[in-house]
Every structure is written in C-alpha cells, then in structure tokens.
C-alpha cells in the first residue's frame, strides 16, 4: 500500500468510530459537539498557524466540506436510526467515483461507473426501507441529512484535488473556522449544553481524532493519491463503522443491513475498477 493510501486508511479508521462515539453524546446539542470538537481538532496544527493562510477558494472549500459534513451528519444521527444514517452517509465513496469525471478534467464516466452507482443506490434504498416499499416518514429528514453529508464530503474531496495544493496544516484553519460557525449556531439556536465528565472525554476523542487528525490524513491522501483509488478504499468505512456499532451494542446487524452494505461496497468497487476487467466489450465506454 503506497503512502497516499496509508493516509486514506488512517483517516477512514478514525472516521469509522464517529457513529459509535456520537451516539454517546446523543443528549447534547449537535452544534455544541461539532463546535467544540472541531476547535479541539484545530489545535493539532496551531504551532503552524501561519500555514492556515491559503487562497480564498481553498479556505471556502475547506469550511464547506468540514462544517457542512458535520452539520448534516450530526443532525442525521439525531433524526434517524443510527444504523441507517451511518450507511447512507457513507455513500460518499460511491459519489466520489460518479462525480470524478464531472469535477476532475481528464477522467471519463464509463458504463461500469453508471452500473456501480445504480447498485450502490439500490443498496442505500434497501437500508432506508428495510426491504419494504415505503419509507419511514418520521425518519425521512434524517435520511436526507445523511445523504446531504455524503454529497458534501464527496464534492469537498474532489475539489481538494482540483484546487491548488496547500499545506496540510491549513486544515487546522478550516476546522477552527468551522468550529466557530458551529458554536455560533449553538448559542443562537440550541439550549445550553451540560456535558457529563464522560461526555467531555468523548468530545475530546472526537475532536482530536475524527475531527482533527483524520482531516489532516485525508487532505494528504487527496492531494497525493488517485481519487478513484482513495474513494474505493473509503468503502471500508461503512462496514467498519457498522461493526463498531454492533460491538458496542448500539445496533444489530440483520440480513437486510448486511445485503445493503454489500451492495454499496460492491457498487463502488464496480465503479472504480477498469471496465475491461469487469464488462464485456459492448458495455465499455
């Protein structure tokens, strides 16, 4: 495994813990958790604060991706069952593959990408519906929030590749600005937070790992590696995340969830591998 893939795997391993940890702060206002966590994450690069200065487009993309992702994700966990919200939010690797030809010059959208995206979205629909034809109206806002998180992260990642390269330490500035925005919304729209001692510890872990170090690793992976390969590796995230939820007793892995996860992972794999290895000649782009 090359260095960019190692950086991506490190980020993915940390992000896999988000659903489990976030469930333990479920009683706290989500903007409070996101704000404190992101500011803690920014401290990892505070010694290189001069490198936080980047072109406006880079800064805007960073805040869009980090603040936007957690805005949708934390609200998804509050409005929908954790299992379904987790799997839907991790459609982002599939979206990275599908959107790469549209956002990154020099790439093409082949038939295998289209088929892979269809398989993946059928899997996403299966986890939302539980194998039934009707959606849960009560959880629909949470489902949409989770899908919003996936769209934001996929587009942020691809724009990171497209924009001029900047120091990885600039991610600390993105985290700090995103944290301030989240805390501003907390004070403006949410009740006061009163975390327990255990919840403070969980927020600290969230901040330093999935909200801090993981972003640094991901930025390096996106700037140095192949976005399609990185996206393909990202498909390990929903499985790892789900296994953590099951191990912590917060979810049960039933047959429907297992099939849906397999379809999402398989669909993204189909979309990233060369068409000539998977499809007959008449289907190749």
The number of helical runs is 14
Number of domains: 1
Order of helices and strands: HHHHHHHHHHHHHH
Question: How much is the radius of gyration in Å?
Answer: 18 Å
Strand content: under 5%
Mean of the pLDDT scores?
85
Number of beta strands: 0
Q: Alpha-carbon distance between the termini?
A: 29 Å
Mass-distribution shape = globular
Helix content: over 70%
Low-confidence stretches: none
Q: Structural class from helices and strands? A: mainly alpha
- Biggest β-sheet strands, sense, barrel: none
InterPro entries: EamA_dom (IPR000620), EmrE-like (IPR037185)
Protein name: EamA family transporter
Pfam families: EamA (PF00892)
Domain EamA: 4-129, 141-270
Description of the molecule:
The chain is mostly helical. The protein has one domain (3-273). Helices cover 73% and strands 0% of the residues. The protein has 14 helices and no strands. It has helices at 3-15, 18-23, 30-42, 56-79, 82-89, 92-103, 111-129, 140-162, 170-189, 197-224, 227-233, 236-247, 255-272, 275-278. Helix 11 runs antiparallel to helix 13 (255-272). The longest helix has 28 residues, at 197-224. The model has no long low-confidence stretch (mean pLDDT 85).
């Amino acid at each position: 495994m090359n260095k960019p893939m190692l950086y991506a795997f490190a980020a993915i391993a940390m992000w896999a813990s988000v659903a489990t940890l976030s469930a333990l702060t479920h009683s706290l206002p989500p903007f409070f958790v996101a704000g404190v966590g992101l500011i803690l994450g920014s401290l990892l690069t505070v010694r290189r604060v001069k490198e936080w200065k980047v072109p406006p487009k880079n800064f805007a993309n960073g805040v869009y991706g980090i603040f936007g992702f957690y805005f949708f994700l934390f609200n998804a966990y509050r409005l929908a069952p954790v299992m379904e919200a987790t799997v839907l939010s991790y459609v982002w690797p599939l979206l990275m593959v599908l959107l790469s030809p549209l956002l990154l010059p020099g790439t093409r959208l082949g038939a295998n990408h289209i088929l892979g995206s269809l398989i993946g979205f059928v899997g996403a629909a299966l986890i939302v519906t539980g194998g039934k034809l009707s959606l849960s109206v009560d959880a629909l806002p949470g489902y949409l929030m989770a899908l919003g998180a996936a769209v934001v992260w996929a587009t942020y990642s691809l724009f990171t590749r497209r924009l001029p390269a900047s120091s990885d330490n600039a991610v600390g500035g993105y985290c700090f600005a995103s944290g301030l925005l989240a805390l501003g919304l907390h004070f403006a729209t949410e009740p006061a937070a009163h975390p327990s001692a255990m919840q403070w510890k969980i927020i600290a872990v969230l901040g330093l790992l999935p909200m801090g170090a993981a972003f640094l690793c991901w930025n390096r992976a996106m700037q140095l590696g192949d976005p399609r390969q990185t996206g393909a590796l990202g498909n390990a995230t929903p499985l790892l995340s789900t296994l953590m939820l099951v191990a912590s007793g917060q979810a049960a892995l039933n047959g429907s969830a297992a099939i849906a996860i397999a379809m999402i992972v398989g669909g993204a794999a189909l979309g990233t591998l060369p068409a000539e290895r998977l499809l007959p000649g008449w289907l190749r782009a």
